[in-house]
Amino acid sequence: MHTSIKNLSIVLAIASMPLAANVTDLSGNEAKFSFEGAVEPACKTSSGTNTVTGLTLDASQKTQDIGTLDVWCNTGENATTEYSSANGGFLVADNAQGSKLAYTLNIGDTSGIDLQSGTYKHVKATVAGSGIAGETKATSLKITPQSNGLNEAGTYSDTITVTISAN
User: Fold this and answer.
1) Which is nearest to 83 in space by CA: 51, 105, 108?
2) Is 31 helix (H, G, I), strand (E, B) or coil?
3) Which CATH architecture has domain 43-165?
């Protein structure tokens, strides 16, 4: 008796399951499947060389390399990059006075950028690699300290953060 009740329960369970698809036209000899998806625009970046520890901070106001920005985008276009300074566009000393030294930033061929007024947006101008292997293109970053040779003693530093977006 238990066996027939179990079998009846299994048959009722299978019969009550919804069917995924019904064939309504048995005369056709082909089936079609349409599908699509999207790959969203994206850019990736990394710091190339960026281990500068010995800036020249004298009256020469020499333009100096601070590193390279390596960029890849899947759009085949140049990227938009936005630059901000942790110290508001100043090199700040580790001395008791917290002395400040202004500087300007060069991004590739664009020079004289002042970050004291806030962030700088380099619109559709930063070169980007676009290959499927992820090859990047590098843009050089340089600063020109606005030193006069009479600045207070100390080690001066700043951090520039770069945010990247696809066009």
Assistant:
1) 105
2) coil
3) Sandwich (2.60)
Question: Where is 65: in which H helix or E strand?
Answer: strand 64-73
Whether the CB-CB separation of 123 and 107 falls below 8 Å is answered with no
- Least Cα distance to 145 among 88, 67, 60 occurs for 60
**Domains of the chain: which residue ranges?**
43-165
Tokens of 110: 């664009």
Asked whether the beta carbons of 142 and 106 are under 8 A apart, the reply is yes
What size, in residues, is the chain? 167
pLDDT attached to residue 53: 75
49 neighbors 142 (Cβ within 8 angstroms): no
pTM: 0.77
**Using one digit for the tens of pLDDT, what is the confidence trace for 83-94?**
999 999 999 999
Q: With helix as H, strand as E and coil as C, how does 84-147 read?
A: EECCCCEEEECCCCCCEEEEEEEECCEEEECHHHCCEEEEEEECCECCCCCCCEEEEEEEEECC
Angle at 60 between CA 48 and CA 47, to 5 degrees: 10
Q: How many Cα atoms occupy the beta-carbon half-sphere of 130 within 13 Å?
A: 12
